[in-house]
Amino acid sequence: MIRTSLLIALCAFIGVSANAAAPTTDELSYDGLQRRDSKVFEHLWVRKYFDVRSYHKVIFKSPHIEYRPVMKGQTGAEAGVALTQRQKDSLYDILNKAFQSELAKSKFFQLTTEPGPDVLLIRGDLLDVVSHVPADASGKNDLLQVAEVGEATLVMELYDSESDSIMVRAIERVTAKRDPGAAPSTAAEAVQQTATQWASILRERMDAAASIPLNP
């Protein structure tokens, strides 16, 4: 079982209620988004007048993954394990497929490849990825022995597909951790569960946003 800091709100809403829809600050991002209060995301920015309900289709853009560098002096939770390029490629493929599979389950958005007036481009990037499980020295599970217990920062960005302008940026730190009481799983299963969990967060946030206007 995988636990994340977002489980308390997976089927709730994107974190902006009607009462909290107005900006609580005049703070603007460098690309013109306004800061919003959020009960879910650590950071949320929305373009003025944007309403996600005006869109009905999404173009999925493959995720960008950045790993925390392993440096001398790091100890405890801040230290991770350096991954091989094969491991990074494997995680990318698993995550890419998980995101596409989850987005295909959306109740409100249809996957497409063509831009249009009702089409959003969605990116679900993972930054500062930390793996706490060392690789299998034998190399047998070299492609999959990653992130069995790990964490990352999930960055969800929504773009208008015709103008290429960013509409929303939401950020949250997510943690994947094996339940000590659960039955042991293989490295492959652990990675797949982690990828699916992160992808589910992205998809459920999209569906929740479709039912609540960000700028009513």
Reconstruct the topology from this structure.
Blueprint: E1 34-35, E2 43-46, E3 57-61, E4 65-67, H1 85-103, E5 110-111, E6 119-131, E7 150-160, E8 166-176, H2 187-211
Parallel strand pairs: 3-5, 3-6, 4-6
Antiparallel strand pairs: 1-2, 2-8, 6-7, 7-8
Helix pairs in contact: 1-2
What does this structure look like?
- It contains 2 helices and 8 strands; from the N terminus they run E-E-E-E-H-E-E-E-E-H.
- It has helices at 85-103, 187-211, and strands spanning 34-35, 43-46, 57-61, 65-67, 110-111, 119-131, 150-160, 166-176.
- It has 216 residues and is of the alpha/beta class.
- The protein has a single domain (27-71, 80-177, 184-211), classed as Double Stranded RNA Binding Domain (2-Layer Sandwich), CATH 3.30.160.
- A hairpin with a 5-residue loop joins strand 7 (150-160) and strand 8 (166-176).
- Helices cover 20% and strands 24% of the residues.
- Mean pLDDT is 73; it is low at 1-24 and 137-149.
What low-confidence regions span 5 or more consecutive residues with pLDDT below 50? 1-24, 137-149
If you consult CATH, what is the topology?
Double Stranded RNA Binding Domain
The level-1 CATH class: Alpha Beta
Biggest β-sheet strands, sense, barrel: 8 strands, mixed
Question: Which architecture does the CATH hierarchy give at level 2?
Answer: 2-Layer Sandwich
* Percent of residues in helices: 10-25%
Number of helices: 2
The number of domains: 1
Q: Distance N terminus to C terminus?
A: 37 Å
Could you state the order of secondary-structure elements as H and E? EEEEHEEEEH
How many individual β-strands?
8
Oligomer: single chain
User: On the 0-100 scale, what is the average pLDDT?
Assistant: 73
